[in-house]
Amino acid sequence: MKDSRFKVLQMKRSYLLMAFFFVAILALQNCKPEPKIIKGNNDPDSLYVGTKYVWPALYQFPQGTIPYADSMTNEGVALGRRLFYDKHLSSNGLIACASCHQLSHAFADSGKAFSAAVGGSTFRNSMALINLAWSPYFDFDGRQPSLAAQAQEAFHDNMGFSAPAAIAYLQTDSIDVKLFKRAFGRPGTITETGIYKAIQQFLMTAISHNSKFDLLRRQLVSFTPSEQNGLTIFASETGDCFHCHMSEGGASLLLTDNLFRNNGLDSALDIHDFKDAGRGAITLNPNDYGKFKDPTLRNIALTGPYMHDGRYTTLMQVINFYSDSTKDSPTEDALMTLATHNYGRGLHLASSQKTDLLNFLYTLTDTSFLDNPALSNPF
Q: What is the spatial distance between Cα 96 and Cα 172, in angstroms, rounded to a whole number?
């Protein structure tokens, strides 16, 4: 009898212990933190901004702060490249940014004074898009403060851009949708502003720094006697090119000082005589009329025709202009009037000097830029 009671008690204790442990386990489970709920976790591309773009090492290039560089991603650059080449973003489906800015011509137009646009043509020559990451303003008159703003103007003025139509089109392309999410993060919505910012990121990677001139500075090649003489003419008072195209006393490799000047292209008695007011139309400062941005000379052999109105078709014509044909006007840059060498207006270079200068300018062609697959048409 006692044994049976003892066994019953033992069983009750076992059941109580089991019940206690069961309750304890439930309690511990209830103490665990709630699982983190991530909105949109079925769409992982929307959960982060893509891979940060790593700026390449550039020999002796300016070391100053590059605008927007910290916000650049590889996905944003890739997206901008697609948008730059996509003709579907124009109202007629025939024009893309790359229509006026062709890689084979260093992102200038191919031999055209003015480029084709929806309903007409551009009102100035299409500038080459090279090393714009270091440019403080854009277009010949500097009217736009950023590449995104410049892209916005070109889309609306030249491509007949309709943001709703473009966004609807991009939403049908799985690659564009994915890149928008990765480039700009959650929620990855395709927006008009995002289009311009992506193109800005792509154009910032259009860097030219491997011409023969660059290789000479790295002591990897030698110039011919004519090229070397041309460099001497370029970088001295003989040709007087360096004041506008080698800023910082010749230390800059941008081959532009990014300033606005009247280079004596047109004669004028007063500011109202200029057919194109240039910088003056933006600032309304009488001293800025007839002034235009000094363009980079990188890849200059491929970016003709030349000047803001594309009036010169060859580089030799440009050299002849600076040598013998500059004109007087009220806002003409002082550097132009100083470059006379007491022989009257102009430099009056000898024929051999012109040839040597031309041969030097050819050394500024960067074939690695022209052949860079990361800048080419992705379609």
A: 18
Structure tokens at 50: 């893509």
Is the confidence at residue 42, as pLDDT, over 70?
Answer: no
Tokens of 351: 């024929």
Write the DSSP assignment of 52-84 as a string of letters: BPPPPP-TT---SPPTTGGG-BHHHHHHHHHHH
Query: Radius of gyration (Cα) for the chain, nearest Å?
Result: 31
| pLDDT greater than 70 at residue 318 | yes
Q: Give the predicted TM-score (pTM) of the model.
A: 0.86
* Closest residue by Cα to residue 199 from 240, 225, 161, 233: 161
Q: Are 41 and 47 in contact (CB under 8 A)?
A: yes
Q: Are 97 and 154 a contacting pair, CB within 8 Å?
A: yes
Domain limits, the chain: 51-208, 212-363
Banded pLDDT at 301 (limits 50, 70, 90) = very high
- In whole angstroms, give the CA distance from residue 173 to residue 219: 47
The fold of the 51-208 domain, in CATH, is: Cytochrome Bc1 Complex; Chain D, domain 2 (1.10.760)
Residue labelled with tokens 């991603």: 73
Q: 211, 364 in Cβ contact below 8 A? A: yes
Note whether 51-208 and 212-363 share their fold.
yes
- Give the relative orientation of helices 174-184 and 192-204 as an angle to the nearest 10 degrees: 80
As assigned by CATH, the class of the 212-363 domain is mainly alpha
Q: How far apart are CA 12 and CA 303, in angstroms?
A: 96
Q: How many helices (H) and strands (E) does the chain have?
A: 15, 4
Portion of the chain with pLDDT greater than 90, in percent:
74
Quickly count: other Cβ atoms within 10 Å of residue 379's Cβ. 9
Average pLDDT over residues 191-202: 98
How far is residue 307's CA from residue 136's CA, in Å, rounded to a whole number?
A: 20
Determine the Cα–Cα distance for residues 154 and 122; give it in Å rounded to an integer.
9
